[in-house]
User: What shape does this take?
Amino acid sequence: MKTVVLVHGFFRRGRNMRYLAKKLQRQGYHTVAPTLPTTFRGIRECGESLARIIVPICEKLTSGKDVVHFVGHSMGGLIIRDYLSRRVVEGLGRVVLIGTPNGGSPYANLLLKLPFSGEILKSLHDFAEPGSDIAPPRNVPAPDIGIVIGTKPDIVRRFLLPGEHDGLVTAKSVRHVAASDEILIPCPHEQIHWRADTARAVVSFLESGRFR
Assistant: This one.
């Protein structure tokens, strides 16, 4: 069985990943898209919630053909990275990070200047610049990691960040040193995981370890 765990971003719920879930199901994947407390909890606490879902799945793996992949959008990618840095996952497959602020986002820094924002929205600390210090995956060998980068912000935010960006996160921030491959998608941050070309890229990477 091929399972894909889909992890949503900040201020979202599991259903925010339903487009990718449907596309992956049509390719024969079993999908799991949990709702995690990304609004008021940091990546560590979200990872603990994720563990309660992932551990039973891994316990049911019966052969070397069973595999568990991870796909995360935005903060969801940070949750996946932190989770894999703390646990060895049996049957671990590949990982795709979509618009993940690995190097942080300046908007989080701005929000943290508001009174009590850091105490209420604890996850802001995790994706403020210069980004979270997350260790490499514990699995040996480490999984293939694919990076999907948005490059076309809406007109309102087009000139608010330097270089290529998706309106919220720069391409430089999304890029990760351990990535096996990357692909640029001309789309804003909030829409990138709702596109057919993104879905095709995700399927390609899960199958081959490359975006082709």
Observations:
- The CA atoms of residues 103 and 172 lie 7 Å apart.
- The chain has a mean pLDDT of 95.
- DSSP finds seven helices and six strands in the chain.
